[in-house]
């Protein structure tokens, strides 16, 4: 295997990415910002490192997105393809480490909380147009996110900032809690403790853009973005290609690559043909090609697998009987699905989920166990729970691979005497029915919007998020209290205890039935070096270089 | 007649716009929820809904849309928040280029091979050509595309497997060939039958008896007589291609209005979907109008 670069992350991580459906919702950044105060020393955050030989400058990395991202307006980023490009073009106060497991400083030279007020000192950085990044630009970017005219789907990221409610309602002109002290300093006053705030600041939605350039771009903003990331958007052909060139004045040094070209290739067969023809340097490895490459000694080192920060689950509608009102019925479903068979069907590209939290996001150690497939036990529980002989509706998306896995579960449950009617629906119908609770049982998944357990558990389990993340419509005041307490806690271990309690409660009550954690798999060309695999499947190309002649 | 048809285009377009708009509202799913994301609060969804103008009464939305159309405004994409007109303009170029290249090639191949098949009926050439054309019609477009990619990009390494190149780019060859194969296959069968029918006509015997060569009879009389039905087939095929061949666009990662419309449907990007349906409808109306003009011309020529 090509050794991974390792200057700034211990032991050169081998987290990996690969195939992913439209993981709407990934945004991303930073790891369990437990107590979160001082920034990692990390000047080397994006310092490229040699894999084999010395890194060289030059060349274009040819990679892909599945769909045209449409816009790189930070306030509008909510889809996976947008995040893929944004991770390389936008820059916020913080950014995700290249392997996707840690927070690194971005434009913030220092950012320290004192009570509920953060004082942020900007480093001497410039936008891609050469103008300096100022505190005024940061405030403009944050104000813009919460402006009702922007209609950002991620405005809630700044809900803990003082004055957010007024700004979001249009009753105030910007966030009262964000104040410019001087050109390089600003303060951010929170309305209460927010232990996840540092992780939120690393979200691409809070990337800093040039006020002057944004206002000048008008309606074109989104296609024309002036930020301070390692690469700068240089061309965008709708539905075809997006090209970004290396920013000569990137604060952490110019990337090795001259440019990155994302081709819009939605079909996985086409991606593989392009990879094999040498016109694509990186591709997700679909199941139909996996064995051929993984078993080929010449290619095996370039096939990468990584546990993802992602959980697939069944959401149980807790408002509907009998599943929602009967714990034995939910346990019957939990014990009645053969996760190992599903994993085998996915060629090992997943691991069993025993907890809602994935291992990469601090799954509690005592979560080991979960439901092991046992159809006799499931049958007994189904009879006790009153679902034996009754038909349950399982809603899923209509993606062929997902339908195949759902059919396997359907067959498992039938063996346990549980009749499940599968209803695959398109994405729009799925989202609407999930939000309205129009299902008995639904396939669901979670990836974090920012890399903190709060972003994983609160949307799923907080009663305030019923219909907007809490698709199970789970309502438990004790869990609400633990989640709120964890967000207020400045003490890392105390947060850990709260989240363990929440995770254990979810495992006991089963509003969600954990199924799998994805393992991402992809392959890259032999000449690609310094490529780190992001647990969020959001590769950072600022450390990548192309080996001549490889 | 032609002028009246051209004058009707705006009226038909307005009708199409209203029908499409109402049709959009019968689609299941909430565009605002989809645009806001699964974890957005009801408050956020409401903000997005208002920003997209979806909170107004239906009649007002239809009225505003038609008013916008009059001013050349197709609205703002809910997904990209960019003007739909600009996005459609960007994807329409590749669609028009591909459609015209395919149709010109299909006509050249279809008419030539179909005529040869008719003239050489009974020999081995004709059954072979007809078998080939039948096969081309049976194969799904995506299968043809994948086979061509494997052969010309992977095994022979001659052509790029995908890309959005223009008329003079090698990236257009494989998607064009993929579309030409079934289009030409159908024309071969059609032209063969039309030519064979006319070969038995009295005017052909008369022309041959007057001493004209077989070639000049076929080109000057038979094909001219067969022109009208050929125009009908070609215009129908061209209209289909202008509607976008989404599968070909997907297989060759080529931008085009078919894929744009499909993506808009999936994401319930109503302005983008409406805009693309409207533009496709206009193109079909335009092709039909041109076909009518061509019929008149062909009739006059064959009569003359």
TrEMBL record, chain B:
SUPFAM superfamilies from the xrefs?
Answer: MetI-like (SSF161098)
Kindly indicate whether the keyword Transmembrane belongs to this entry: yes
What is stated as this protein's family in its record? Answer: Belongs to the binding-protein-dependent transport system permease family.
Record localization: Cell membrane
Its recorded name reads: Oligopeptide transport system permease protein OppB
Transmembrane stretches, by residue range? 7-27, 96-117, 129-155, 167-188, 230-252, 272-291
Coiled coil stretches, renumbered: none
A cellular-component GO term for this protein: plasma membrane
Cross-referenced Gene3D superfamilies: MetI-like
Against InterPro entries, the record matches this protein to:
BPD_transp_1_N (IPR045621), MetI-like (IPR000515), MetI-like_sf (IPR035906)
Give the Gene Ontology MF terms in alphabetical order. Answer: dipeptide transmembrane transporter activity
Location (main, coarse): membrane
Give UniProt keywords alphabetically. Answer: Cell membrane, Membrane, Transmembrane, Transmembrane helix, Transport
Give the ABC transmembrane type-1 domain ranges. 92-291
Topological relation to the membrane, as annotated: Multi-pass membrane protein
